[in-house]
TrEMBL record:
It comes from Cryptotermes secundus. This is ethanolamine-phosphate cytidylyltransferase. It comes from the Eukaryota. GO terms for cellular component: cytoplasm. Its EC number is 2.7.7.14. The gene is PCYT2_2.
């Protein structure tokens, strides 16, 4: 009997999707490529706290963030922590997809054991160099290593192993983080590659978009509604550090590029955009309107307004997304709950290490 190629293949993914980052997005991109329609189940705050420790983002924030990822067709809220055949059948999904890392319940049970046993499980490659645990660690450690410049820019980090066990010396192969190494192929995979149509109204926005969050998402939705094609200019790490200070940006430019490319409202990204929006930039991209949110506009290095030119042309608009979330507020959440997150990260690394060693011991016994 020949396979019905006209049938829609429905794919299921589930998880916490805490501090939704480009690693999550890349996993969902790969999952969508295995079928036609992607459904993502997301655990609620109580389930995550029980099995993993407190999440950084609330469940409502996590639901909204995943809905904003361009490869996601549908989101199911508050799904069980262990993926069952009943869940797959309820949503008419052919199989479940997860990354090649191990996810355990509080009791040390593989959360995908049921779908694996039934042959309805597929694996995609985890994005090396990023995890929610690592991002939490960057904020707690307040290091600046993630945006090294010059000859050290692409070095894999080797700071002394912290009490969080989050750097490249950390023991767990999943929680431990090697620096993200970007490639042009990854950018191509994340990009739509579609130029604007001749009559499209082109909107331009610029900023750091660090630790991409619901505030960014709501702003970009409003900006996209102003036209047909949204171009997002990302400032370089030194520029962001100049106007934000401390150890900002938390995510380096390469990481921020993939984070915004995964957003369904973004059409194109300017990598390393100039801080001042010039006449040349507006002409080059045929910009009809430049938009900015409610965050204060920081002056350029020479003290000038970076939006002088679009304002002169009458092509500047302030937007109110009515969302007050900022990157700084996320960092403060982490710092205010430091001990809880340190405990969560320790517990997670310990379980992952035990599972990893058990898996390899089993493999060695069967050889």
């Amino acid at each position: 009997m020949s396979e019905d190629k006209s049938r829609t293949v429905r794919v299921w993914c589930d998880g916490c999707y805490d501090m939704v980052h480009f690693g999550h997005a890349n996993s969902l991109r790969q999952a969508k490529a295995l079928g036609d329609y992607l459904i993502v189940g997301i655990h609620n705050d109580n389930e995550i706290t029980k099995h993993k420790g407190p999440p950084v983002f609330t469940e409502e924030e996590r639901y909204k963030m995943v809905r904003g990822i361009k490869w996601v067709d549908e989101v199911v809220e508050g799904v069980p922590y262990v993926t069952s055949l009943e869940t797959l059948d309820k949503y008419h999904c052919d199989f479940c997809v997860h990354g090649d890392d191990i996810t355990m319940t509080a009791d040390g049970v593989d959360t995908y054991h049921l779908v694996k046993a039934a042959g309805r499980y597929k694996e995609v490659q985890r994005t090396a160099g990023v995890s929610t645990t690592d991002l939490v660690g960057r904020m707690l450690l307040m290091t600046r290593q993630h945006f090294r410049q010059g000859p050290l820019e692409y070095d894999v980090g080797h700071e002394g192993s912290s009490q969080l066990g989050l750097d490249s010396d950390a023991r767990s192969p999943y929680t431990g983080c090697s620096q993200f190494l970007p490639t042009t192929q990854e950018i191509i995979q994340f990009s739509d590659g579609k130029p604007p149509k001749p009559n499209d109204r082109i909107i331009y926005v610029a900023g750091a978009f660090d630790l991409f969050h619901v505030g960014h998402l709501d702003f970009l939705e409003k900006a996209r509604a102003e036209g047909d094609y949204l171009i997002l200019g990302l400032h370089t790490d030194p520029i962001v550090n100049r106007y934000k200070g401390s150890n900002y940006p938390i995510m380096n430019l390469h990481e921020r590029v993939l984070s915004v490319l995964a957003c369904k409202y973004v059409s194109e990204v300017v990598i390393g955009a100039p801080y001042a929006v010039s006449q040349n930039l507006m002409e080059h991209f045929k910009v009809d309107m430049v938009c900015h949110g409610q965050t204060p506009i920081q002056p350029d290095a020479d003290g000038s307004d970076p939006y002088t030119e679009p304002k002169r042309q009458g092509k500047f608009k302030l937007l109110n997304s009515e969302n007050t979330m900022t990157t700084e507020k996320i960092v403060n959440r982490i710092i205010n709950h430091r001990l809880e997150f340190e405990h969560r990260n320790h517990k997670k690394e310990k379980r992952e290490l035990e599972a990893y060693e058990a898996f390899h011991n089993l493999n060695n016994e069967t050889l």
